[in-house]
């Protein structure tokens, strides 16, 4: 019976601990509650990843109401992989970031800040485990509203206009998604995704379904920040508290892409004529533009966090590019890149948080010489950057190897895609070299005298995440198996 309760526990524990954190008077007890809840959710995610395999799925009927009449929580290999990303990113950020948050968030806000953090965590987990389209929307709103609090909760006044743009764009995306779900419910009479995929075959008039495809797809790629609907993302990442950026950059966009792939393959692909071609024809050009344009902007960006934010837009393009190939190898490459990018970008933003404790400005020119002053923080940053580039022996290499292999199977178009992947990798080398040259080959500024490395505990967590990029580059078995199983599950819904 124990594994059967894990889907409910993964959602319930952070949501139940959120009001507890809010009622506490000081920051340390609230941080302790949030961290324990997050680590417990990570433990549940590890157990769930071991409970599913192949095409096996774990279903939990909330309140013992039978599906599709009641609410269902469903764990597949795909959702298990996303759970590892979400809970791992939250746990690492909380364990590493207490000192950073104390410097950025006013003390009276700490209990409410950690309560909002747990709501984000519970909401993202709820999206991933929910088998019901409307409850995905409910959890989406829970996580989004709490994320706005986290982004605006720091001391940087530039976060306020950034979070306002994020709120407007996020609301539009969620509204589009809800309109699409409403249209499908009108035609099928169900909200359960699996039941929806079955009943949609009996729909005679497909015009509302076609409209739903547009609303759901646009809404979710807006939430994910795919080019050209990424305008909210750079400033949100740049002006959020640094540990908040490490959390949301590792998992937020991946959750939206997860919903998009799950919805499209389970509901739309098997019922609409030529939809596979439409899916590829619409998303593949956007993915290519995201990879090239965002990488080009990152090469010219002068703020370190904004540079990494544009890099994330490009990496989202890699995930979508793999999915748009509509093959098992392409989907596997896109899905495993969700995991590997979370490792690389999570470690890089954790390193940025450690650097920002000592140096307030994150303009590249103000980081001159810090490789000598903060050797452990910058070395971890560069190790994760090697994974972002795709150097052999790192997790990022596994993603790009599978993506290039999948593209080569696509014929002439695939050769052009390989050129795009290689070109973008060279562009990544260019902007990472800008950072490395500034940190290691320039003399430190006069006002940097006396700067020391990040706190030891923060460095410990940072290096665990950074070395995980090497571990999963040499031994990619767990994420690779989960990704391949996820791809097989998605493709299993096709005719």
Verbal overview:
By secondary structure, the chain is an all-alpha fold. It has a domain at 276-489. Helices cover 77% and strands 2% of the residues. It has helices at 2-23, 27-51, 77-104, 110-129, 133-152, 159-188, 193-199, 207-224, 233-239, 242-268, 275-300, 304-324, 328-358, 370-373, 375-389, 395-408, 412-441, 456-474, 477-491, and strands at residues 58-61, 72-75. A two-stranded antiparallel sheet has the order 1-2.
Helix content estimate: over 70%
- What is the mean predicted local confidence, pLDDT? 87
Radius of gyration: 21 Å
Count of DSSP helices? Answer: 19
Count of DSSP strands: 2
Residue share in β-strands: under 5%
Unreliable sequence segments: none
Terminal residue distance: 35 Å
Strand numbers in spatial order across the main sheet: 1-2
The backbone outline, from C-alpha atoms, is globular
Structural class: mainly alpha
Order of helices and strands: HHEEHHHHHHHHHHHHHHHHH
Biggest β-sheet, characterized?
2 strands, antiparallel
